[in-house]
Specification:
heterodimer, A: Helix Hairpins, B: alpha/beta, Heat Shock Protein 90, Rossmann fold, five-stranded parallel sheet, four-stranded antiparallel sheet, 8 helices, 9 strands
Chain lengths: 76, 252
């Protein structure tokens, strides 16, 4: 890997980890709320947000898979 | 101890006639006591032997089968727990040994506290994050911690809201946002309203580029990383609200 391409790769990894951290943070907080806040928590809103964060994660992984397929077919 | 009683029960039963033999274990609780009884359908104990049953080295078992220490040890163990060991037996019908123990008062089931903070620690917070799920979670988490929360999805919205109402104790902002980033928000505030800029705490999913690292090294504002250790998030907020100007009163 050239110095330039490893720099680009690092940038891609940085972006991916940032993107993954968002839904993981939401999942972490919502699970905490469900466990710790008990009846004080708005369960429905918390569960709806858990679903949203899970769906975000799925989109990120789908996107990564599409890119991987495009790279491997494009690269021959 | 229970094993010893069960073995005694088993040894009291003559081999054979399986259909009519049994060992029954019952657990009952009443008032402040828990009773565990072990009943066998064995040979029973002669009434004359009952008073001596708990004496060391007294045994009704054949020579070589038991030392005669089992029940005296059982009784001592139960006694050390503040309980009693009682026996009822009918020769030829079987024996019931009952362990009576003091019941422990169950600890009241209290929900885990979300935040060990006094009511006075509640604050008015602004949260800025372009990720809707994170924004929503943060908002509800901080609300559950007793805080008033205004949640906004971009740096631009935050800046506009602050121009109309700046009565916030703390502003938690994401660093990497499309459009106006957390850094842009800081610089805009620092230029026009430096007191507000000092209320910013930067929240981010880590993995900073060099410019962001340089920025964070330059400014005094605190940072939190996602995903959070939530106890530390809440205690961080509580600490910030307590403020450096008012050191915590020593609790000596």
């Amino acid at each position: 890997m050239t110095k330039e391409s490893s720099g680009e790769f690092a940038e891609v990894l940085r972006q991916i980890s940032h993107d993954l951290n968002n839904p993981i943070a939401a999942l972490t907080m919502d699970l905490y709320l469900l466990r710790r806040a008990g009846e004080d928590a708005d369960r429905e809103a918390t569960i709806a947000n858990l679903e949203r964060a899970t769906s975000d994660l799925r989109d990120i992984v789908d996107d990564l898979e599409r890119r991987a397929v495009a790279l491997s077919s494009g690269g021959g | 101890m229970f094993l010893n009683l069960l073995l005694n029960a088993a040894q009291a039963i003559e081999p054979g006639d399986r259909a009519n033999q049994s060992i029954t274990v019952r657990v009952a609780s009443r008032d402040d006591e828990v009773d565990v009884s072990i009943t066998d359908s064995g040979s029973g104990i002669a009434a004359a032997d009952l008073p001596r049953l708990f004496e060391p080295f007294f045994t009704t078992k054949p020579r070589g089968v038991g030392s005669g220490l089992g029940l005296s040890i059982c009784q001592r163990i139960v006694g050390e727990f503040g309980g009693r060991l009682e026996v009822e037996s009918t020769l030829g019908t079987g024996t019931t040994m009952t362990v009576m123990l003091l019941a422990e008062e169950p600890a009241p089931a209290t929900p885990l506290p979300l935040l060990r903070a006094e009511p006075s620690a509640a604050g008015r917070l602004m949260v800025v994050d372009d990720d809707a799920a994170v924004l929503d979670s943060l908002k509800r988490l901080l609300q559950a911690g007793g805080h008033e929360v205004v949640a906004l999805q971009s740096g631009e919205e935050a800046l506009e809201a602050l121009s109309e109402d700046d009565r916030f104790d703390l502003i938690l902002t994401d660093l990497m946002m499309d459009g106006m980033s957390g850094i842009d928000l800081y610089e805009a505030l620092d230029r026009d309203r430096p007191a507000l800029a000092r209320k910013l705490t930067f929240v981010s999913g880590g993995a900073f580029d060099q410019d962001t690292r340089d920025f964070l090294a330059r400014v005094p504002n605190p940072q939190l990383s996602k995903p959070f250790e939530l106890d530390s998030l809440l205690s961080f907020v509580a600490e910030q609200l307590a403020g450096p100007a008012e050191p915590p009163i020593s609790s000596s």
